[in-house]
Amino acid sequence: MMADFLDRADDLYSLGVNDILDASDAFESVRRARASLQLIYAKSHLDLDNVESLFGAIEMGNLIGKFPDIEDKTEIRALRASMVTVIYKTLERSIPFPVRDRTIMPPEPFMRFATSIHDLTAPNRSPVTQDVSLLTFNYDVNLDYALHVNRIPFDYCLTGQLPSEHIPLLKLHGSINWGFCEECDRIVAWNMRELNQGLLFPETREIYFNLGSQLPSSTHGDGHKLSTPVLVPPTWNKTDYQPQLAPVWQMAARELAGAENIILIGYSLPETDSFFRYLFALGTQSDTMVRRLWVVNPDEDRTVEERVRTMIGRGIKNRLTFMRLPFGMAIREIFGELTR
Ligand SMILES: [Zn+2]
Question: What does the angle CA 58 – CA 247 – CA 281 come to, to the nearest 5 degrees?
Answer without folding.
Answer: 80
